[in-house]
Write a structure and sequence with these properties.
The chain is mainly α and 273 residues long. The chain has 13 helices and 2 strands. Among the domains are: 53 residues; 118 residues, Tetratricopeptide repeat domain (Serine Threonine Protein Phosphatase 5, Tetratricopeptide repeat). Helices cover 66% and strands 1% of the residues. Strand 1 and strand 2 form a beta hairpin. The radius of gyration is 24 Å and the shape is elongated. The chain starts with a helix and ends in a 6-residue tail after the last helix.
Length: 273
């Protein structure tokens, strides 16, 4: 006869494979055999979560049984996030992260929720709290870059945020393709900011390419450059063209390569020739 532990592991495997029907059948068997095991309730709630069904009430009950454990709090945070109860989700993510920083997923969850709430500085702060010693540090810094610029209308882009994103990117040792993709995103944001006429961006300002400001204290880069380029439309277009052509060279997919070359041609600065 299969032990409850084996059945629970099998149920988890079925849940991960999105086969909740088999998982539920196994959980019914375990419930009948044990007469009431909190782990059955846990996996039922996990199955609900995986199936997009409300699970907060079930996790609340388990949290009441295991109030000091981070896993129920993290589960409550995720359930609340999926149910769009963002303040509650943020509270539980923050509770887990400030208590035990081995749960890096809580920092990413907190940043995700803060971003959904429209608080980009708080989202960035959560990502910055991932220590440099963590294996997830680079991923957190990449997320901090995109949190500042992604999904924003041109008129809503803050020039300081764009320059900060560029400074962060310069400080990261990324592989060529990831760097070029992020560089394209940052330069597109810089060009959109420039063309929107946002305050703080000068079309004629010039500064040294070697000037750098550390992001450790939250400082932004110099007002006249980003990623070594002067903040003029021509220079940004030159930089974008180079970046898209570099990406086209790196990609192995023919249709993607053609699309990137087309993109490079579309951003190329206009000339009289």
């Amino acid at each position: 006869m299969t032990s409850p532990e084996v059945s629970l592991r099998l149920a988890r495997a079925y849940i991960e494979q999105a086969d909740t029907g088999r998982a539920e059948a196994l959980l019914d068997d375990v419930a009948a055999a044990t007469g009431g095991d909190w782990r059955v309730d846990w996996y039922r709630a996990v199955a609900d979560l995986a199936g997009g069904r409300p699970a907060s009430a079930a996790f609340d009950a388990i949290y009441g049984l295991l109030p000091g454990e981070p896993a129920p709090k993290l589960a409550l945070a995720l359930a609340a996030e999926l149910e769009r109860d963002l303040p509650r989700a943020a509270r539980y993510y923050e509770m887990v992260w400030t208590t035990d920083q081995s749960y890096v997923t809580a920092a990413f969850g907190l940043a995700r929720v803060r971003l959904a709430m429209g608080d980009r500085p708080a989202a960035t702060a959560a990502l910055d709290s991932v220590p440099a010693s963590s294996v997830h540090y680079t991923r957190a810094q990449i997320a901090a870059i995109t949190a500042r610029i992604r999904g924003r209308a041109a008129g809503d882009l803050n020039p300081a945020d764009v320059r900060e994103a560029g400074s962060r990117l310069e400080a990261l040792g990324l592989d060529a393709e990831r760097r070029e993709r992020l560089e394209a995103e940052v330069l597109e944001a810089a060009l959109a900011t420039l063309r929107s006429g946002a305050n703080g961006v000068s079309k004629t300002s010039r500064v040294s390419r070697t000037s750098r400001v550390s992001t450790a204290n939250g400082g932004a880069g110099p007002a006249g450059q980003i990623l070594g380029l002067q903040l003029t439309e021509r220079q940004l277009r030159i930089g974008l063209e180079r970046t898209y052509r570099a990406l086209a060279h790196l990609t192995e997919n023919a249709s993607d390569r053609i699309a990137l070359v087309d993109r490079a041609n579309s951003v190329r600065p206009r000339t009289l020739l």
